[in-house]
Design goal:
The complex is a heterodimer of chains A (484) and B (382). With 484 residues, chain A is mostly helical. Chain A is built from 19 helices and two strands. In chain B, the strands form three sheets. Chain B has a five-stranded parallel sheet, with helices on both faces. Chain B has a two-stranded antiparallel sheet with strand order 4-5. In chain B, strands 7-9 form a two-stranded parallel sheet. Chain B is globular, with a radius of gyration of 25 Å. The chains are: A mainly alpha (484), B alpha/beta (382).
Chain lengths: 484, 382
Amino acid sequence: MLFHSQPFILGFLPVCLAGCFLLGQAAGRVAAHAWLLAASLFFYGWWNPPFVLLLLGSIAANFTLAEHILRLAAAARHAAARRWLALGVAANLAVLAWFKYADFLLHIAAPRAPPLGIFLPLAISFFTFQQIMFLVDSARQDRAAAGPLTYATFVAFFPHLIAGPIVRPKDIIPQLQHRALAPNRDNLAAGTMVFLLGLAKKLVLADTFGGFADTGFNAAATGAHLTLFEAWYAVLAYSLQIYFDFSGYSDMAIGLARMLNVRFPLNFASPYQARNIAEFWRRWHITLGAFLRDYVYIPLGGSRCGAVRRSANLMATMLMCGLWHGAAWRFVIWGGLHGLYLVACTQCRFTLRRAAAQALTLLAVVVAWVPFRAASGTAAVGMLAGMAGANGIALPQMIVHALPWLGWIATPVEVLPYLGDARTLSFPEVSACLMLGWGIVLLLPHVHTLSERARARALASSFAFSMQAMFFAPHVAPFLYFRF
Amino acid sequence: MHRPVPTKQEERQEQDQRLGRHGPFRRLCLACATSLALYAACFALVLDRPLSLGFLRQEIDARLARGAAIEGPKLVILAGSNGPYSHRCAIIGPLLHLPCVNAGVAVGVGLDYLFARWRPLLHPGDVVYMPMEEAQYVRDRAANALGPDAAIMLRHDRLTLARLPPRRWLGALFSYDLRGALMAVIETALVAGGFHDPRPDAIGESNVMGDHVGHTAALARANASVLQAATPYHPSAAQIRSGYGSTLIAGFIDWARMHGVTVIGGLPTGFDDSPIPPASLGAIRDVYQSRGALFLELPNRSRYPRSAFFDTADHLNETWQAIHSVAVARGLAALTAGTVAGKVPAAITAADAPKRTASPSIGIASSLAPGTAMAPLPATIP
């Protein structure tokens, strides 16, 4: 079930909230947790019911193991706890590898072998990482005590189940155990506000830019030669699409949790305003970045073992980050590029002016989206060639007619076939949309730092468009992170 | 005692507290209501798209005006852009001795809107020929409610909107997305700045009968690669049978039968290397014949080589538009002989076509763009 679908908003959400609060007040916390767990499993099973068993099996196995590890750690049997922890982490990664990476690894080992055709269970990367955190925190004795029902409710909690944020057990489980079970007017209102603003990001902005990006990238995938503006507009549109899509999803998740009196951590903080790549990663998918830092980079040695080892650790962490996004070389390349950027950033000995630093960071991030989005290496190279102007610069006749000096640099054409709907007015249309989108991400603060008044203004400017998209747009696009 | 000057952050907090007194839910509801009210006011009363929707509106209104001006029986060609691009009233009308209006504009325009506009202008004895594009039959209710006609009705034609079901009112009210809103501002600015619309130079324009003219084979050469790569869409028979467009067409046929208007279904033009699957073709035929309407199926099923087209499979270039029109006129004459009031000839031979259309007032030559030459019609017309 998608957060921005009618069945979720008009059916699931009100029933889930009402049931949780009514049961919580009438029958107590256990009943409310049981309801929330059942609702979350229904939410997960809506997509493919058999995989609910996988989720439940994973929860049961990890809880049992975590309790055992905790007992060992509490008894100061640290070596045994570490062995069980290693076993647990390996088992989780093996399940993830089987479902997500088996075909990819098989293709590397035997390129001619037929694919296994394994179906990727929804959200497996998210609930696997979440539970690895629980195992590690158990070994560190750094978690709250939780019964099986609370733990299952935490892992399956529908606001974060599908695509994060990747929340820490020690942050959320205590909230589930101690939160008020009655509806809180302030939390309901604030949660609804953030949810609706996230909905607008997804439906109004991300899906608009997604259409523009698809036109260009689909053309590149068929071997079309995109000219400079077509290529840049597609990449800039994709950069906005993925930001608004994922940050919109995260806002919706944060809002939903808030409605249930649970506070989730921030996941995006205006990442395109970052002035260096390290700052970008402190602002982009913050919870994944924190997970990788605390559970991969630092255990690998972090920056404690000299410059060379630090660079190697950064590269390894970012390659894993790339692989986490999907079993394909394009994600590895994307992760590798970000690893190189981070290494370069740590080696950098000069400082740029604020605007120049921000522009350079943005350029690096935007370029890295090309392999991430492109259907193949060839398509990525084609897109980069277009961005470099290798296929020429073309502009619609009417633009060149209006601004004749552009004729010196651009060839006038009837329409740009790989821009928007390839109509006469597509160029100004896409330009205006991109200006609006980039204006929002570069000039405005993010939703969570806005005042109540500013949030109300943002909602007033977007709510009608969200309703238009939800009830009247013929096509609802799924979230990009839906299957990562 | 003087109160210290509040910082910006304190001011903001005070504002929030003042707002907070109204209650968080009231603020939320107020923001949502404001949004809906502003949206409705902007798109119903202020914003418009004078270039894209204005162009369509002019095209629709011009055809309706032509239809209203004709006294006595007339032929109306109703379809999407397949109508004006691939059919020429300037040829078909004289051949059938019936004044003719090419009433189609674009596939996106809602059929219910088109029918609602044309019903008052149709009278007993009129003939409506409907070579609808395949996509028209399967266009779903949601897409139909959001076509360009929705915004046109909301802004300029609320009378027609009021005659349509309430779900269309909502569709019209919510017909603008973000792109539409931005384009409304851009188009208004372009018109205010004296923008020259390049479309007539690139694709030709319409004559008084509603035929598209000037889409010559020479201009079509620019689209040769697009035409070669085009993959036509053929919906299945089941999709056509259950399609919302088919329901709307069936309703119109029922209305026409009750009002003495003859409806003749037809096939859209398409590539000869991509025929309509027989089952789908049967389903299209059924839409008309099962309701008692006639159906015109040319021997070539309106299929032509890709080189005969202008920019899509629905748009023949001007030369082939004339050839197809003669074939359609011949088929319509055979179908309607003795059933339609007026002077419809029983048969038209290929030799009639150039002779009959040579008249400068109604001939092919008069409807060509200046400076373009019409290729001679082949002896054998499909």
